[in-house]
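Let's study today's protein:

:::
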Amino acid sequence: GFFLFLNLYKYLILLCNSRAAEILYSLALVQSSKSEKTRVFPSVDNYKLLTEARRNLGLFQHHDAITGTSKDWVVVDYGTRLFHSIMNLKKVIIDSIHILILKDKGAYNYDASTPFLKMDDVQSSQDSLPHKTVIKLTSQPRYLLLYNPTEQERFSVVSVNVNSPRVKVLSPLGKPVTVQISAVWNGATTVSHEAYQITFVAHLPPLGLGVYQLLEVQSSEAVLADYDIYMRNSKQEKPDRLFKIKELQNSVDNIILENSYMKLWFSGMSGLLEKINTKEDGKNHPMKVEFAWYGTTSNRDKSGAYLFLPDGDAKPYIFTDPPIIRVAHGRIFSEVVCFFHHVTHTMRLYKVQGLEGQSLEVSNIVDIRGEYNRELAMRISSDINSQNRFYTDLNGYQIQPRLTMSKLPLQANIYPMTTMAYIQDIGVRLTLHSAQSLGVASLKNGQLEVIMDRRLMQDDNRGLGQGVQDNKITANVFRLHLERRYGTDVNEEKASVSFPSLLSHMTSSFLNHPVIPMTTYADSGVPELLSTFSPLTSSMPCDMHIVNLRTIQSKVDIEPSDEAALILHRKGFDCKFSNRDMGLVCSTTQGKIKVHKLFNKFRVESLTPASLSLMHSPPDARNLSEINMSSMEINTFRIRLR
């Protein structure tokens, strides 16, 4: 159940940003103790909100919660708790950034009724997808704050919605940046002129903030995206007062997108991916994306919340009319969007140097609320000679090889994927990174398949007492990443463990820790802000991840103490992949970090090792000046910042 249900709620967990809130709160707490003016920071109230959010997230990990094996009304209660936690964590993030980003801390003034910032997305109820707010522009610059939750310096593509296409974006250094303007669509073919999506590449410090400025100008240098819409009854030119939109008939010709790393071919009939050419070696790789349905058996025992009992192999997803296909060509990204009856499928290619240009962003908005005993899967077929072997991650930490066995029934060959799954042969590895946990299989050589949603009408006699009919419209987000392998040997294929490449780890980190955009709540009269806030002296090593920096509760009451838990994880990675020209803005240091060089604005007063759960300190625990960790280890330290 965990891997196939409640995808909407799992998507919400990603949006919870509980780690970002914990880290920002810990830094804001230290900042607030530095002067009298900043002591009005609502540290106790926010600590209570953090604690409650932590408990709600923990509750949702219950074996009948995240698995979807609860009655409908119980699921609504879980969803409502998550929804409240998201609201509360947003408040903690906003309050914490307020105190950290002010240039003159003496001007700090906390007013509970008017927040200093607002997030760029709103969610109307616990069972709906969030949507972006529209930022109103004037000739006066409007601050756009971008928070980078990863511990490495980052170049990331950021999109926000604004109310005017005459836009200029200034970087934290005050220089104009290249902007792409894309249409915001109502449905498949109608352009909304109430909002415009602007996209640019942001450069952000590790765990830090960059303050960009948006303003309306008479003549904008932003580049408009062009659109081709493939549909049955097409008129040649579709008049629009801003965008160039061509309407075409669905055709047997391919749709082509490319950037400096790869070239992609899509079918002109279905809009689905067919082939990738990697420019590094000039090779073509067949890469067919398709959808498929699973039914359930005609026996007495049928699929339900616990059981997957398919009626044989999946049937291809057949559409009588070709879908509407909308192709966007832009300076920063191009994309192909296919509108099928049950799924809106988007493949986006970023035309940027570095990490984001090297993988394909795939998103599916799935709606099977009108179906009867059916399950929808996305399948990727390649010519990789995977020999029935594929790899999935356990809890985002280790990767485990899986073997598809023909002697087992189909359902026994489906495995959980928490953050990634891959197949490989001597020359290449194809990784599917995921932002939500799902079930994955590799039923044929060179194939990966992900089950996206299930709708089952009957109970399967395991104690739930109902079917699975509370489906929601769900967003699934993936990254598809093809890499070359060097110097592999045959014995390695039989090893019991495998590791992602460094680039793969970073791609997964970008996907699971997206940049958080915010704007100032007031249009004018905003006090002066720092142009950037960088709490770390430099990027952490590429293989080091700050799992959390969490303020420890005081022993007396539900209020914060002056200590925090710094939890670090050193990732294991496979060296048989090139790291040259990958756009990684960090290095590796064999797991060593100098403590006094860690933080920039704050001084480390003490750092002592503790057990993972902070319950125990070793008897010889003393103040460390250097952190030294082996690969694949997680360590917890008690840290005091000043």
About this structure: The mean pLDDT is 89. Residues 71 and 502 are 42 Å apart (CA to CA). The first strand starts at residue 117 and ends at 119. Residues 72-101 form the longest helix (30 residues).
